[in-house]
From TrEMBL:
This is SACA1 protein. The chain crosses the membrane at residues 138-162. It comes from Oceanites oceanicus (Wilson's storm petrel). The keyword Transport does not apply. The gene is Spaca1. Keywords: Membrane, Transmembrane, Transmembrane helix. The lineage of its organism: Eukaryota, Metazoa, Chordata, Craniata, Vertebrata.
Amino acid sequence: GIGIREVLLTSGCPGTEAKCIVRVEECRGPVDCGWGIPISEGLACVKMPCIYIPPENRFKYVWKMLIPNKTAHILPNDSAIMEVCRDTHSVTFQCETQENGNIIASVKYTVYATTEMETKKSRRIETGQSRRKTTDAILIFCLVTGMIVTVGVIFAMIFMILHW
């Protein structure tokens, strides 16, 4: 795939540096980059980027909708970034970055359905509330323990003063 790589030098660097960058270059590796992370994701829509390096118009982008057990549906969008709104079911998209007719990078995204996003959001809220209860219990325990230790220290000091 396309990307940028830093070539590091581990000896012979100026000063006391253990590593230093010799040069930054374009690199090509495996075409399949796996699963990507959207640029922005809301309850209604998702913005997904293809893999590219500047200048963006140097490449051709082919977006596909992947349908299980069927041929992928090629979408008319040919830009580096695609925005889709959530549907009633999850959909997987794939973007192929092409240069001179060759696929040089490919990335996939799953856009979850609106109902799945609402379920995930409510789970996050529930998890947050249980964490809050646990945190409150810990804080109360620490406060009570601190008060008991403080009272104990005060009594110990009074006892020492009276017997001195």
